[in-house]
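worker-03 picked up job from queue 'complexes'. Input manifest follows; two sequence lines, order preserved.
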Amino acid sequence: MTPLERYHRKIAEAATQDMILNMGPQHPSTHGVLRLELITDGEIVKEVIPHAGYLHRCFDKHAENLTYQQTIPFTDRLDYLSSMNNSHIWVMGVERMLGIDKDIPKRVEYIRVLVCELNRIASHLISIGTYGIDIGAFTPFLWCFRDREHIMGMLEWASGSRMLYNYIWIGGLFFDLPVGFEERCREFVEYFKPKMTELNELLTNNQIFISRTANVGVLPLDVAINYGCSGPMLRGSGLKWDLRRIDNYSVYGELDFEVPIGTGAMGTTGDCWDRNKVRVDEIGESLKIIEQCLDRLQKELKRTPEFDPRAKLPRRLAPKAQDYYMRGECSKGELGFYFITDPTGKSEIPFRVKARGPSFNNLSVISEISKGVMIADLIAIVGSIDFVLGELDR
Amino acid sequence: MILDSVKEILSARFGDGVIIGEETSGLQPALLINPEQIADVCLELRDNPATYFDFLSCLSGIDYGVTSNRFGVVYHLASIPYQTQLTLKVNKEHTRDINDLPSFPTLSNVYRTADWHEREAYDLVGIYFEGHPDLRRILLPDDWEGYPLRKDYKAAEYYKGIKVD
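worker-03 finished. Artifact:
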């Protein structure tokens, strides 16, 4: 019997005594087009079978047919909520293969980190806001989107686009920051800090929210590691593992920030509340990084008229024959690109690219941690994983 | 150097036949492992206190091109306690027969990460993983024909009676 027949038989047999329930692909709480097939006994979920692939856009195949520079807009569309982070990691991988990663001007590196962290905040705001809406809190969603709009506006000012930026280029940037960006950004940080306090009072420390999320969907650390979870999922289970700190890529080594982890403050370590709390704390850390970047960008790395962010763009983008795995911390976790360059070392088109999306591995743990939970709790678990289908299906 | 100690551990445990070769020219050196022993090797590397490669970052199925007729799988391991990385590769020659897929042992009983990644490699590159608990297509529909990331893949003209442009 093939695995497909085995699966069909399992569903057919379960349907005689239990109920098969399809959650999605159009259900709003699945955050996109994900279909979860539930085998339920009353309100109890006996098994979850995820079906991915509704948003498959052949990223790997596209990357095999386009040059490294042309693929950057495609990386933006992987995790479309944190496009800057995706293209940053892609670009760093290509730069390392070309051997020009040490020549990138400091100002360019700081601008990259600045926009990446702004984008990380935007992504976490969506995650927290939609998590609230998943389990019945409507107001935080509106607050999060109101504050995210400031970030979208700023990034649009810098790159010309609201969500899919194509701003970070191999060897440099599309444009320098617009005049006045640093001041506007500082204004935003000052505006945003008290808003986070408000959001915490409204949502994170809200007793109803705690009752819905604490002790729900507990992900033990060993399971998280074995399933390859990363990012806030892994840190929520209590492990200090942040690739920005481990690999110290770009200029993260020069910046001062903490890695927040889940402590089980409201229940068990690794429950849904911890995962959400890690994201809330990470917003604070990202603000710290942004302030440090702004300090540098306004003092020793000040904008000068002759500064050209495209000055170091390589004329030819053909790395020598090799393969390289580049990993970095996206807002959802470890985003990796595995490149195999052209075997002749002359082509600008890679031989093979594989994208390892954090959401892909983070979601795979769902059938493990949601055995025997109530259907309403499953919604809470799905929301706390914070996956983006664009990256899961690629 | 991490690669040397890994080589020592592996040849002491499994004999010299387990490491077929190594690639040290690139930025990330890689070990070529005997395909039959890859699951044992990973289990050893995961549990050995000297290595603790407990995190499988990435698993990629590769078609090495029409001229060489080689299929392979590349494993990127990471050790959380030691903060090290390691690349392992397996590959074998194959005739490209679509009804008899190239086959490698599954890693899903060592790292559960491999479960979905192997399904993806099966789905897109057409590599069979022996002993995988549930090797169905994951990104493409169940009735898809062919394996799109193979270098000799031709897009079908029709999908369920609809002309594909």
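worker-03 released lock.
The beta strands of chain A are 19-23, 35-41, 44-51, 168-169, 172-173, 323-329, 334-340, 352-356.
The first helix of chain A runs from residue 3 to 17.
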